[in-house]
Amino acid sequence: MQLITKILSSVYMFPYRKSLTRISNHANWTCKGMQSNKKFAGIIPIVDYSLCGLLTSDKLLKQEDLYNAGKELVDAFSTRGFVYLTNSGINPKHLQKAEKITNKFFNLEKSKIEQYILDGGMEFGYVGVGREDVDWDNLCDVKEAFSFDGNSVFNHPEKLPEDICPGILEFPKKFMTDCRKLSERIMDSLSIGMELKEESDLRKCHKRIHNQGNISYLRLNYYGSADKNHLQPGQIRLGEHTDYGSFTLLFQDNVGGLQLEQEGHYVDAVPMQDAIFIIIGESLNLLSGGLLKSKKHRVMVPEDEVRQKLARHSYTYFVDPDEDVVINHQLLYKDESKNKADFKKLPPPYTFKQLCLERCAKIYAPI
């Protein structure tokens, strides 16, 4: 099993283009000589998930391994709010296919792409440059994206743009299926690591993933060449924001630009080959009673002129609670002292659907 994991990890992220080779040498690194056994990539904790990842079958999965990984994840998410997950078992072919589809789709004539423009929500369709504004107090985002929600992919495949981009029909099914399986393993690890009273509660909040009533979705993000001379002063690729679902799996290339908020200032999230960047969203922050932190992040335009001319790819799988989940009533812990909520003074129920509608109204405000 270890040999298979090692072989897969050598090709795990999407194949880097030759133009990136000379930039990537300094981009992937791990701090050494630490006092503890913890590993970091810059400020980002690294969790090895080889014993709980998708290469480990359900039959061979051990409760002890879920517990150990869960404790590491909870420690990282309760202090930093994010982590690099290695040895997840996600098939590297998914990422290679994602790169091909991204390059093919976003280089089509705009008139063809705009037939599939997103309408009224974030979960399915095309978004053009400047259409979204995740930091609604500042300038619009400089990126394009295409989102695939599970209900469309698995139940209404006729909605996908197979006519203009052959291959886009089958690609998300396999990728999203693996992302869901991995996300459920992560939920199990977190439930055990958090020592919830009922370890199945977190899964129950996400039982409709890829079906009606849950909008968890995969998004292909394409940040084109970003010559600063063509941008407005202060405009960046993706504005400051927090994700508002449960957590996000981010697969990124090594062009860089992602920054994370820590103690009132931003630091670079150094790309790490063969790793998935995971960040906690607002919903899981609420469901955990504030234990798991949801941190602000953004994507900057690189200062280096060579990097500015490179297109940046990232693929995000947003894990969201079911629409009817009440997110402002925390899950219960075995340790009663952690159950902060006074059930006689609970606020009015606030569902994930309500949060989603409020955010979309701001992100997609009328132009």
Automatic annotation (TrEMBL):
Domain Fe2OG dioxygenase: 214-321
Keywords, sorted A to Z: Iron, Metal-binding, Oxidoreductase
UniProt KW Translocase keyword: no
Classification via InterPro entries: DIOX_N, IPNS-like_FE2OG_OXY, IPNS-like_sf, Iron_ascorbate_oxido_reductase, Oxoglu/Fe-dep_dioxygenase_dom
Pfam family of the protein (one): DIOX_N
Family membership: Belongs to the iron/ascorbate-dependent oxidoreductase family.
Protein name per Swiss-Prot or TrEMBL: Fe2OG dioxygenase domain-containing protein
